[in-house]
Amino acid sequence: MRYMETTNKGHLINNPNKDTSAEYCRRTWKVGKELLKGISESLGLEANYIEDTMNLDSGWQMIAANMYPPCPQPELAMGIPPHSDHGLLNLLMQNGVSGLQVLHNGKWINVSSTVNCLLVFVSDHLEVVSNGKYKSVLHRAVVSNKATRMSLAVVIAPSLDTVVEPANELLDNQRNPAAYVGMKHTDYMQLQRSNRLNGKAVLDKVKI
């Protein structure tokens, strides 16, 4: 498992509490792997299917810290525009200040912010592996004029050299053909970095 720390602008940071960060990453990695076992079984696959095919023994993990100070005119600003995440899962912790919204049935829904609680998002690569049975979550962050919102996101992702594609066991050429083309994780990340955050624009590029 490799992990990277970033700011909300995606820049690498020097963290004086590296031991704490590393321990947090180790523990959330274990949580992510257990969740993926349950997801594998829910798809009718072996419990370790996603872990094995996505090469999670050398998987990629990213931790991103975000801070949104109070904004005097929140109606004119956006914390983070609508997007979905690369990787399999995103484990998000918040400081109790609301601001996260998810798109549901064409409407933006406020997600309550509970402290000491992990919110789990399905990410793009899980949508691909499941051939669309699991959908990555389109979300955004809005700002407030009252309080500072902070969040800590941990992305659980395949190894960089893994080609992410629909699980063969879920495919049927007539009833359930592949809905996505395979793409190496590192190429997907490069594609994401070269595009502005714009909904599921990157995921759409691998749809058939």
What does this structure look like?
The chain is of the alpha+beta class and 208 residues long. The protein has a single domain (2-204), classed as B-lactam Antibiotic, Isopenicillin N Synthase, Chain (Jelly Rolls). It has five helices and eleven strands; from the N terminus they run βααββββββαββββαα. It has helices at residues 18-42, 49-53, 124-129, 185-193, 201-204; strands spanning 2-6, 60-68, 80-83, 89-94, 100-104, 107-110, 118-122, 139-141, 149-157, 163-164, 183-184. It has a five-stranded mixed sheet with strand order 1-2-9-4-7. Strands 3-8-5-6 form a four-stranded antiparallel sheet, with no helix packed on it. A two-stranded antiparallel sheet has the order 10-11. The longest helix is centred in the N-terminal third of the chain and has 25 residues, at 18-42. It is globular, with a radius of gyration of 17 Å. The relative contact order is 0.19. GO terms for molecular function: L-ascorbic acid binding; metal ion binding; oxidoreductase activity.
Query: Kindly, what is the distance between the CA atoms of the first and last residues, rounded to a whole number of angstroms?
Result: 31 Å
Helical segment tally?
A: 5
CATH architecture: Sandwich
Low-confidence stretches: 2-14
Kindly report the spatial arrangement of strands forming the biggest sheet: 1-2-9-4-7
Structural class of the secondary elements? alpha+beta
The amount of beta strand, in percent, is 25-35%
| Share in helix | 10-25%
Task: Write down the overall mean pLDDT.
Answer: 89
**What's the number of structural domains?**
1
CATH superfamily: B-lactam Antibiotic, Isopenicillin N Synthase, Chain
Please count the beta strands (DSSP E, at least 2 residues each): 11
CATH class: Mainly Beta
- CATH fold-level name: Jelly Rolls
- Radius of gyration over alpha carbons? 17 Å
**Secondary-structure element order, N to C:** EHHEEEEEEHEEEEHH
Shape: globular
